[in-house]
Amino acid sequence: MFSGAGRRGCGPDLGEALGGRDLSRPVVLLAHQPVLADEAARHGVDLQLSGHTHGGQMFPPTAVTSLVSPVNSAFGKVEFTQLYVTNGTGCFGPPVRVGAPAEITPLEPRSPLPA
């Protein structure tokens, strides 16, 4: 399902975006910021793909993004929602990265194994 649900200046409205969906089908949410993971979990999102943190880029931003985001880089989980946060290829602030290499992450969606 694709939706641009949200009101200008108020952020995304996941209730509007995900309302009326087929609950038997998995939901993948593309959300720029991983801070939406708590709300995504409340709406039954199976997988959220995010960026925004740049993996923290270097210290001290790493400490700040770790305080704000449930996952700073790579895979994590918020309730039953799986969350993947890519470091991306760009930078914020100075063009320097230490411990958070630039990345482009290929993903291969697969059907779950039959029970």
Low-pLDDT windows of residues: none
Helix/strand order, N-terminal first: EEHEHEHEE
- Determine the structural class based on helices, strands and strand pairing: alpha/beta
Overall residue-averaged pLDDT value = 77
Strand order in the sheet with the most strands? 3-4-6-5
Output the radius of gyration: 15 Å
Biggest sheet layout: 4 strands, mixed
- The tally of helices reads 3
Strand segment count: 6
Instruction: Determine the fraction of residues in helical runs and give it as a percent range.
Output: 10-25%
Distance between the termini: 26 Å
Assess the beta-strand content as a share of residues: 15-25%
Give the overall shape, derived from the CA principal axes: globular
Describe this structure in words.
By secondary structure, the chain is of the alpha/beta class. The chain is built from 3 helices and 6 strands. The chain has a 4-stranded mixed β-sheet with strand order 3-4-6-5. Strands 1-2 form a two-stranded antiparallel sheet. The longest helix is centred in the middle third of the chain and has 8 residues, at about 60-70. The radius of gyration is 15 Å and the shape is globular.
Features:
115 residues, two-stranded antiparallel ribbon, single chain, 6 strands, 18% strand, 4-stranded mixed β-sheet, globular, alpha/beta
